[in-house]
Amino acid sequence: MSPFKSSLYWRVLISFCAANLLALGLGIFLTQSFIEYSTAVEINWSAVAQGADQAYERGGATALAEWSLQQRREGIEATLFENGQALSPIRMPPSVQESLKTWLDEKRDVVLQPWPNLYLAVQQVQGSDGRVRQLVALSRTHSRLRQQTRQTIFLAIQGGLSLLFIGLVGWWVARSVAKPVDAISKATRRMAAGELSARVEGQGRRAPEELRQLANDFDAMAERIEALVAHDRSVLQDLSHELRSPLARLHLILDLAQRSSTPEEAARYFLQAEQEISRLDDMTGEMLALSRLEGGIPGVNREPVDVVALLRESARRAGLEAQARNITLELIESAPAVVSGNELLLERAFDNLIANAIKFSPRGGHVELKAQAVGGRVDVSVRDNGPGVPEAEIGSLFRPLFRGSNASRAHGHGLGLAIVQRVVKAHGGDIHAANVDGGGLLVRLQLPLAPSSG
Length: 454
Prior knowledge:
Elements: H1 7-38, H2 45-73, E1 76-82, E2 85-86, H3 94-105, E3 110-115, E4 118-126, E5 132-139, H4 147-192, H5 202-205, H6 209-258, H7 263-294, E6 303-306, H8 307-324, E7 328-333, E8 338-341, H9 343-360, E9 366-374, E10 377-383, H10 416-426, E11 430-435, E12 441-448
Parallel strand pairs: 7-9
Antiparallel strand pairs: 1-2, 1-5, 3-4, 4-5, 6-8, 9-10, 10-12, 11-12
Helix pairs in contact: 1-4, 4-6, 6-7, 7-10, 8-9, 9-10
């Protein structure tokens, strides 16, 4: 999958972009506030002059002195001059005092910066008494920090905020990814140690979509492996039990052959031994086929298969065996019904069904085969007129190596129907067995039709 189509990719990208934008916006806000704090607001010298004149007219030199003291606390040294004389004390550098007379004589408003970080203001103000006085003020509070210092602080704020937000987002993303990865890793180690019941479960369900899917796939894989191992163990136990009897008989037959008194008697025993070996070979082959089907038939190619034609061919091949027992095979077929599957596997399933029906039918009996398309599925049924199966045993018919109470009537290993069921399941179908009125067993399977045939 392309990383650009991954929700985790976009989640990480958008998170980091949002963190950077948030850091940039907050940094600009804080820097603006800092600049406003570090840079003095422009002084309205006309308003200051009016305030000084009002204080003087209200209380004379004493009130003006109090006003000047208040201004000094705010960083401004100010007073009023009249006819070149200060109306209240003012502190100013000697160099300023030398030039002050010249600025007062010009009788105009001026704001000067005679020296760095020192501003001088001379403002004309006319009182309510009609007399003109002059405000003289000095300010050293225009700039609290140098420009270079403000730039350094701005960069420090911006860098610190970026690191903070990116660190928080990185921690959040790493935490959301690390926990499910750790849970998957622990489940993998447990499974590698032989604990087949290990699952990711809870922590994997709260992960991002990709990791949640990985956790689900791991759990599905673990469940499949556990089921296969359990099945293989069960089949191995059943097979070991089933092989014990023919091996014991084979051992006895060979022992009797060695003790035979005549070649004819020994040949008879050797023939029986050959039959037992053939049975063992058939059983082993069927068990291998069953095991392969249980494993999901990996690598099996699918192709269009006409089920009706395939059932007809299986009936033709079984004709000789049916004829030997005087059993009639009746095929009821419809128009072609095509499924998507493996022809060899389906052929083996039909052969097993027909052979099983012939095996349990009495001599002179009748076996009915039917195939027809119904809706989006093809329905295949095989019915014999044998003794049927006790109702209590029908649920176990498709279990490997199961031989019911009627198994003594015919030779077999109890694997044929189990193989048929695995083939049908591998093709997405269903299979059922039931006794029918009048005697006999009906085995019915349904397979989905190929899309072009629906």
